[in-house]
Amino acid sequence: MARFSNNIIGIVNAITLLLSLAILAAGIWLATKGDSVCEKFLQWPVICIGVFLAVLSIAGFVGSCCRVSLLLWIYLFFVFLIIILIFCITVFAFVVTNKGAGEVVSNRGFKEYRLGDYSNWLQKQINKSNNWKKIQSCIQDAKICKKLGDGRIKQTAEEFYSSNLSPIQSGCCKPPTACNFTYVNATTWTADTTFANSTNSDCGLWSNNQNQLCYSCSTCKAGVLAAWKKDWKKIAIVLIVLLVVLVVVYSVACCACRNIRRDEGYHGRTRTHAGWK
């Protein structure tokens, strides 16, 4: 049983070491080949995660296979911190994404979103100019609105209104329905004569310039938060599964560490008895 737990930890860390090398390679690729702001923003977090996982995996592998208790204790300490961190992130994310939902619009196949429906913390983060510039750049790099305007989701006015747009497409690529603009195509609209009387500040921020559209609108920020909330449900499942796996790995690593200490104690007693003889 002692060797079994050590072997399991060795195999797990050999796999995570290979994974860390793949992550590190992806980070290096982003640093050397990435052109967009999004890609360059991700390069250092990805590289740091790759390096951390590589070092941790080596410590766990050497500690379990070579029976080095100090390295295994270090491995246990950081795995425990990771478990606590993932647990805290999961709970925090559930709390801050609990509020907010799309509003059904009459005779429309899509929903629209209001920034005020989301948590104050999320509103504060997305309203920071530096954060929003990066997010806006990512939306433009992904060509989300360009694909919509190119006719891939096409498009008489009635067909467009019945389209199932994503939250970002609904919030960033068209003006709010309340503005009563006249449809020309997916990303081109004509202002109505009642536009000047609208209480919706986003109406004045809309532009037919394909590089502007409604990127400065609060509905665009709300659409991004709605997309995050939707994606978070998928990420949460992954994190919960990862949390369970890490708890199992941590438990097996504890067994391996106890086995090493027991063996060290046994060998120490054996040498002592031999000395007496």
Structure notes:
With about 280 residues, the protein is mainly α. The chain contains 10 helices and 4 strands. It has a two-stranded antiparallel ribbon with strand order 1-2. Helix 1 packs antiparallel against helix 2, helix 1 runs antiparallel to helix 10 and helix 2 packs antiparallel against helix 3. The longest helix is centred in the last third of the chain and has 59 residues. The relative contact order is 0.13. The C terminus is likely disordered.
The sequence of SSEs as H and E is HHHEEHHHHHEEHH
Q: Radius of gyration, rounded?
A: 27 Å
DSSP, total strands: 4
The helix count comes to 10
Strand % is under 5%
Task: Specify the structural class.
Answer: mainly alpha
Low-confidence residue ranges? 271-277
The gross shape turns out to be elongated
Helix content: 55-70%
Widest β-sheet, arrangement of strands: 1-2
**Biggest β-sheet description:** 2 strands, antiparallel
Chain-averaged pLDDT: 84
> Looking at the chains present, what oligomeric state does this protein adopt?
single chain
Distance between the termini: 31 Å
Label this structure with key terms.
277 residues; two-stranded antiparallel sheet; disordered C terminus; two-stranded antiparallel ribbon
